[in-house]
Amino acid sequence: MGIFSFRKKQKIIGLTLSGGGMRGVAHIGTLRALDEFGLKPQVMSGSSAGAIIGAFYAAGFSPQKMQDIIIKTTFFSRSSFRLGTTGIFNTGFLERLFREYFPEDNFSALKIPMYVAATEITNGRTEYFSDGKLFQALLASASIPYIFPPIRIGDKVYMDGGILNNFPIEPIYNKCDFLIGSHVNSLVYDSMQKISARKVFDRVIHLAIGNSVYSKARACDLFFDPPNMTQYSLFDKRGIPQMLDMAYKNAAGILEKNGYKRKAQQ
To answer: What angle, rounded to 10 degrees, do the helices at 49-58 and 63-72 form?
Structure first.
């Protein structure tokens, strides 16, 4: 070898996680596959449930630990139900979850830079949080209209990031060399023979946001979109094991097809 030796520069990997209510849990299956294949993101972004899952991963929680937390946590309980004009559940259960597991309420507690998308409804635009208070940013990003109340930060009012941007690649697109996207809202055919308010709400939400997601998927070097995910509810924990398994197998299959190899076990 000559006087100078050169080490090949490692690509900076970016990862964007979509929103999806309880379906956002499926991102954990994708993260498990990425870990197994040695694809560790150095910068992340997320909207709604994807922002929450991303923040836990960015804080250093393994996919297995996140799965354990999800399984033992109660979501949308009767104690969280509220008769209000701006949301039928309060966000107390999410605030308690954040306080229990994050070392502090600040983006500086994260080990991976994270960008959280939220919809600023007074001006009608997407804004991204990446420093300062963490918990309010996550609550703002996940404030599904009429399910949770809007979140006021300073003189602005925020709601779910997915309203305008359910797949926020924008803040990290120019900060990485290799972009990975994970989407958990692929539509399953439904004849709509049995119509309920919940089913219609779920369907309309995902028809509205789907087109923008798939147009941006083309910017990703790898895009994971496990099929038929809308068979699972936005608000129900039932089906979590199946969702995790589907997302993991989908991601692992795509990685193998693209020539990636699993890391040797330590």
So the answer is: 130
CA 157 to mean position of chain CA atoms: 21
DSSP state of 208: H
- Mean residue pLDDT of the chain comes to 88
- Alpha helix positions (H), the chain: 27-36, 49-58, 63-72, 92-101, 135-141, 170-173, 197-217, 240-257
The total of other beta-carbon atoms located within 10 Å of residue 257's CB is 8
Give the pLDDT of residue 82: 57
Q: Determine if the pTM surpasses 0.90.
A: no
Count Cβ atoms within 10 A of the Cβ of residue 180 and give its class: 0-12 exposed, 13-18 middle, 19 or more buried. Answer: buried
Q: Which amino acid is at 205?
A: I
**pLDDT, tens digit, for every residue of 141-151?**
999 888 888 99
Alpha-carbon gap, residue 81 to 77, rounded angstroms = 7
So what's the pLDDT on residue 214? 87
- Residue 158 is predicted with a pLDDT of 97
**DSSP for 111-134, written as a single string:** SS-EEEEEEETTTTEEEEE-SS-S
Tell me the pairing of strands 156-159 and 178-182: unpaired
What DSSP state is assigned to residue 14? Answer: E
Structure tokens at 231: 């068979």
90 Cβ neighbours under 8 A, 6+ residues apart? 80, 82, 148, 149
CB 99 within 8 A of CB 134: no
pLDDT in tens, 166-188: 999 999 999 999 999 999 988 76
- How many Å apart are CA 34 and CA 82, to the nearest integer? 39
